[in-house]
Specification:
Rossmann fold, OB fold (Dihydrolipoamide Acetyltransferase, E2P), 2 domains, 6-stranded mixed beta sheet, 5-stranded antiparallel beta sheet, 9 helices, 20 strands, about 35% strand
Length: about 350
């Protein structure tokens, strides 16, 4: 069953189109992440689903009900914002129960819901504290709990971890994943953090300019991006791009930096169009030394920058004037100015049209 449906939704502020005829189906129980750079429309879309913004065109359905013009409180959603927005004068228990009390819910039911949310989020020892006595991670747990006590079908998260430090983000990311496993509710989560998107999502919707560029499972988007934007946005660092040309004919080939790669041999048989093209390869798919010498694409490169990452080392170089990043083992010691052979297997790469940027 579909939990949330967005049908031909557009939103404009004056002459500026924020969302453009957007369609989206979110199955019941799915964890969907809206991912993209600032200004791509991901938070705007979430706010439209929540009822905090009125759409210019289109319709929104939740659990089969048309909620396009319903008030937020009547949509059956729970929302967690980037800001904790807790009442400072109330205890944690007061913050969790306040919305239920104003709705006129019975005292016993309020106590049951608060106890359940506190147990799930492991904040039972904090119930009598006020927000000022809590850490950032504890405050965000309380903010999640305030949505949780509503006992709704759909939870909306608007960059809930962006105000936390790296360690807390990692810890709460795991907690949110566990929360979804326990509840199995539909969750729509907005972030610009690729790690959050890859680790949390059942599916990712990558957005740009108010349009969903690609909607698929994390590994599909990572390994088979539909265009150059998605390829470059996902990954840290993003995919390397090598500009060149496709030679068409019976045996199409990609030519760059003095090397010719026969495309038909590596699954690019459909790329017979002659013209400018771009080869994209992930940093972790580039090899060096003897392994590189055995690859169909190999070239000599000079190390320009070395970034030790702990688990591995990120190395930056240039190939034909184009920047290229690749990973080597943490134990391997490279320095600026070192020369080495690098290469990759074209079967693990992506080929994009040089003009449209679309995957070929």
């Amino acid at each position: 069953m579909t939990s949330v449906q967005v049908r031909d939704v557009s939103l404009s502020f004056g002459a500026y189109d924020v969302l453009k005829e957007l369609n989206l189906d979110v199955p019941e129980g799915e964890f969907l992440v809206l991912l993209g750079p600032s200004g791509c429309g991901k938070s705007t879309l979430l706010n439209c689903i929540a009822g905090l913004l009125d759409v210019s065109e289109g319709q929104i359905f939740i659990k089969g009900k048309n909620v396009t013009w319903e008030e937020p409180k009547d949509r059956g959603i729970g929302m967690v914002f980037q800001s904790y927005a807790l009442y400072p004068q109330m205890t944690v228990e007061g913050n969790l129960s306040f919305g239920l009390k104003t709705a006129g819910m019975a005292r016993d039911e309020i106590a049951r819901r608060v106890a359940r949310a506190s147990e799930i989020l492991q904040i039972e020892p904090l119930l009598q504290r006020k927000p000022a006595a809590l850490s950032g991670g504890q405050r965000q747990r309380v903010a999640i709990g305030r949505a949780l006590v509503r006992d709704v079908d759909v939870f909306l998260f608007d960059e809930p971890l962006s105000n936390l430090d790296a360690k807390l983000r990692s810890e709460l990311r795991v907690e949110i994943k566990r929360l979804h496993q326990k509840l199995a509710n539909t969750m729509i989560y907005v972030t610009h953090d690729q790690i959050e998107a890859m680790t949390l999502a059942d599916r990712i919707a990558v957005m740009k300019g108010g349009v969903i560029q690609q909607l698929d499972a994390p590994q599909v988007i990572y390994n088979k991006p539909v265009n150059r934007f998605v390829a470059g946005f996902l990954g840290s660092p993003g995919m390397n791009f090598l500009d060149g040309e496709v030679e068409g004919g019976d045996a199409p080939a990609f030519v760059a930096v003095g090397t010719k790669i026969p495309l038909g041999r590596y699954g690019f048989g459909g790329a017979s169009k002659t013209g400018k093209a771009v080869f994209g390869v992930r940093p972790e798919h580039i090899v060096t030394g003897d392994a590189a010498a055995a690859m169909p694409f190999a070239a000599d490169a000079r190390v320009e920058l070395v970034e030790p990452m702990g688990s591995d080392t990120l190395v930056w170089t240039k190939l034909g004037g184009q920047s290229l990043a690749f990973r080597v083992e943490a134990e391997r010691h490279l320095a600026t100015g070192d020369r080495l052979r690098i290469g990759f297997d074209p079967a693990r790469a992506s080929l994009f049209d040089g003009q449209s940027g679309n995957r070929m």
